[in-house]
Amino acid sequence: MDPFLYHGSGLESPANDAIAITPSDAADLATVVRALFCTGDGTVRVTMRGGGDPVTLPMIAGVPLPARVRRVWATGTTATGIVGVW
């Protein structure tokens, strides 16, 4: 039973799904995520949902990075075990 089945999800709602992310310099993610997690500290180079130039952000294992991301670049990413949620 899911008592919230017919409730709308907002950006402040808990995530409904997750995907393991393999950083790529060539391909966007299949789904724009709303946060990233990692299992190994480092940096993540991303293109945000709105586009623009890629930016490099720090990541700490287990700490969510609340960002609407459409690409995680291989070049410039050192964090490991990256997961996106939406």
Provide structural commentary.
The protein has strands at 18-20, 35-37, 42-48, 55-59, 69-73, 83-85. By secondary structure, it is an all-beta fold. It has one domain (18-85). It has a three-stranded antiparallel β-sheet, with no helix packed on it. The two termini are 21 Å apart.
What is the helix/strand order?
A: EEEEEE
Structural class: mainly beta
Number of H- or I-type helical stretches: 0
Could you give the distance between the termini? 21 Å
Total separate domains? 1
Shape: globular
Number of strands: 6
Report on the biggest sheet.
3 strands, antiparallel
Beta-strand content bin: 25-35%
The Rg value, from CA coordinates, equals: 13 Å
Side by side, the strands of the main sheet go: 1-6-2
Helix content: under 10%
On the 0-100 scale, what is the average pLDDT? 95
Q: Brief description of this entry?
A:
The chain has 86 residues and is mainly β. It has strands at 18-20, 35-37, 42-48, 55-59, 69-73, 83-85.
Topology:
Layout: E1 18-20, E2 35-37, E3 42-48, E4 55-59, E5 69-73, E6 83-85
Antiparallel strand pairs: 1-6, 2-6, 3-4, 3-5
For the structure shown, list the relevant keywords.
3-stranded antiparallel sheet; 0% helix; 86 residues
